[in-house]
């Protein structure tokens, strides 16, 4: 080396791994065989990310600088023969990402020492790398709790003929791990074909993306475990474990050029069925004590209430619950009355009203199905939805007249009801409605006339 015997860089405490926000200090040692003239002795500390298009190349096509600090430890002068020691100290920014060494890119941190000599003399330099670890606390990641699960189905083809379907379900016990922990993989394979499948396998995969003009993806299988096959028409429960080796963490926070992802790939060799279970690898493991407790959900909203008018003019509310409603009970036969009801009752059921529809509740006409609904008194006619005839009753003459026809009473007066769905029989004046025939003992005695009905 000529005049220079040794140029060394030492970190205090022989420390090699630092964290963002920490200071790095050390000593530069210069050993000379004879005196040396120098312009300055400088120490530089820098960190950057470099991306290349060729594997294991250091000719960076894209770079990202994190910090670059330089301090001068000796001014212009002459260094005498012997050993000289110079101290330095730098502060590492809190935003610097974790060190990384990949096939197409690296995140590098280093300390360099320079001895600048006069013109036409040889300059001397030395560098020493150090590693930066930015801890990834898995407990701070969103949606980290619970298992990672997925499912897929695939047609089983043999000799260009589809013979059945393969259904594959798999999950991991957690979504976040640290190196040294065990991933518990559970899979369910349902072979709905007549052919035997290939072996099932689970692999821990690392996917590194290098962001350049044309992103480069580097996919590696870190660990792989394999199971058996599944015969035709069988269902298999498969459980396996994967030990995580020392690996870089999932997130390189602060770096815009490199992205790291991990996932467990569960696959069948034949047919080719594959699913992925994304996971995170960090430095601080999950703590069950920090798991957020499940908050009680808001009180359930009441179900909508359908209001149906009763013969007495009141509104009866029926709760539309999810449980099935009991069948409507038969309406009791009314007792004989001497006069007509004070309200106007139609003489026939609506044209679009069906027996037992909507669980016995009549639909409101404002519903999208545009069905007409109206409350019907059992005194108005002898048949209503939910009403049945006893065995000894003859529903003959008391049957209601169809809508769209006119009913002619014994006095020759006729009550005409429109057949269109837009008219509401409830709005008709009392003078156009027939008397309440059901309350009479027909056919033993004839029904009264309109005048008699109103006089009584």
Automatic annotation (TrEMBL):
Listed Polar residues bias regions: 307-320, 370-380, 413-422
Residue spans of biased composition, Pro residues class: 325-335
Residue span(s) of domain Arrestin C-terminal-like: 162-286
GO molecular function: ubiquitin protein ligase binding; ubiquitin-like ligase-substrate adaptor activity
Example of a GO biological process term: protein transport
Pfam families assigned: Arrestin_C, Arrestin_N
Location of region: Disordered: 289-456
Entry-linked SUPFAM superfamilies: E set domains
Comp. bias intervals (Basic and acidic residues): 289-304
Gene Ontology terms: cellular component: cytoplasm
InterPro entries in UniProt: Arrestin-like_C (IPR014752), Arrestin-like_N (IPR011021), Arrestin_C-like (IPR011022), Arrestin_domain-protein (IPR050357), Ig_E-set (IPR014756)
Annotated family: Belongs to the arrestin family.
Protein name as catalogued: Arrestin domain containing 1a
């Amino acid at each position: 080396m000529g005049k220079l015997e040794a140029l060394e860089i030492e970190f205090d405490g022989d420390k090699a791994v630092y964290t963002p926000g920490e200071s790095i200090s050390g000593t530069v040692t210069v050993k000379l065989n004879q005196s040396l003239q120098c312009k300055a002795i400088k120490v530089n500390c820098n960190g950057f990310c470099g991306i290349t298009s060729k594997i294991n190349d250091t000719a960076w096509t894209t770079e990202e600088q994190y910090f670059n600090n330089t301090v001068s430890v000796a001014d212009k002068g002459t260094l005498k023969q012997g050993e000289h020691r110079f101290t330095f100290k730098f502060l590492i920014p809190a935003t610097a990402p974790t060190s990384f060494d990949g096939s197409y890119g690296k995140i590098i941190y280093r300390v360099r020492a320079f001895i600048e000599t006069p013109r036409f003399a040889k300059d001397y330099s030395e560098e020493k790398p150090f590693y930066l670890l930015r801890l990834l606390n898995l407990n701070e990641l969103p949606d980290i709790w619970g298992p990672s699960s997925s499912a897929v189905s695939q047609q089983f083809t043999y000799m260009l003929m589809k013979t059945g379907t393969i259904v594959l379900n798999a999950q991991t016990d957690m979504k976040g791990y640290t190196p040294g922990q065990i991933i518990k993989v559970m899979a369910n394979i349902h072979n709905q074909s007549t052919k035997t499948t290939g072996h099932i396998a689970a692999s821990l995969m690392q996917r590194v993306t290098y962001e350049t003009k044309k992103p480069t993806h580097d996919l590696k299988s870190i660990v792989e475990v394999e199971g058996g096959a599944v015969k035709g028409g069988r269902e298999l429960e498969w459980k396996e474990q994967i030990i995580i080796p020392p690996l870089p963490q999932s997130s390189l926070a602060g770096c815009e050029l490199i992205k790291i992802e991990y996932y467990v790939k569960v696959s069948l060799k034949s047919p080719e069925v594959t699913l992925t279970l994304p996971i995170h690898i960090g430095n601080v493991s999950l703590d069950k004590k920090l798991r957020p407790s499940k908050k009680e959900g808001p009180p359930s909203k009441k179900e909508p209430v359908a209001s149906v008018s009763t013969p007495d003019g009141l509104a009866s509310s029926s709760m539309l619950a999810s449980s099935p409603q009991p069948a409507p009970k038969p309406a009791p036969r009314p007792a004989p009355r001497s006069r007509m009801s004070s309200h106007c009752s139609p003489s026939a059921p609506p044209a679009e009203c069906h027996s037992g529809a909507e669980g016995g509740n009549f639909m409101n006409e404002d519903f999208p199905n545009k069905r007409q609904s109206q409350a019907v008194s059992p005194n108005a006619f002898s048949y209503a939805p939910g009403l049945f005839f006893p065995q000894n009753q003859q529903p003959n003459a008391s049957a209601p007249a169809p809508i769209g026809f006119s009913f002619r009473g014994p006095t020759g007066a006729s009550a005409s009801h429109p057949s269109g769905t837009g008219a509401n029989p409830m709005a008709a004046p009392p003078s156009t409605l027939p008397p309440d025939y059901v309350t009479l003992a027909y056919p033993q005695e004839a029904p009264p006339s309109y005048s008699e009905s109103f006089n009584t």
